[in-house]
Design goal:
125 residues, mainly alpha, 2 helices
Length: 125
């Protein structure tokens, strides 16, 4: 139990004891109890209103943080998408270049094979 709750309970017990032991008429005692109950009710309502205000502000802060995180995540996703596209485009270019080089190598190999064959036929005659 918190210190504030203990103090409130002790104050209430002291007030009740004081009312019950005070030399007042029943009517005065009932009025005092009613007045004190109204004070407690007013104080409690104030605390509830204050708690609502704090909760509302906390909710706003949480929503703002969530919006910021959502925005950051969307930015990261877009960046990753663009990076993926750049990598895919580069891979496509490299693939096309590798095909072209392989074609040139194959053509050179054919030409060399043809020259070797002609030289071999010429030398074998």
């Amino acid at each position: 139990m918190s210190k504030a709750a203990k103090v409130a309970i002790a104050a209430a017990a002291g007030f009740v004891a004081g009312i019950l032991l005070a030399p007042k008429s029943g009517k005065e005692t009932r009025k005092d109890l009613k007045d004190k109950a109204m004070d407690v009710k007013t104080t409690a309502k104030g605390k509830v209103d204050q708690a609502k205000k704090v909760a509302k502000e906390a909710g706003k802060t949480v929503n703002q943080s969530a919006d910021k995180a959502r925005h950051e995540a969307a930015g990261m996703m877009e960046s990753a998408r663009r990076s993926g596209k750049v990598v895919a485009d580069e891979a496509e270019k490299l693939s096309a270049e590798a095909k072209a080089r392989a074609g040139r190598v194959a053509l050179d190999a054919k030409r060399t094979a043809t020259h070797v064959q002609k030289d071999a036929e010429k030398n074998l005659r």
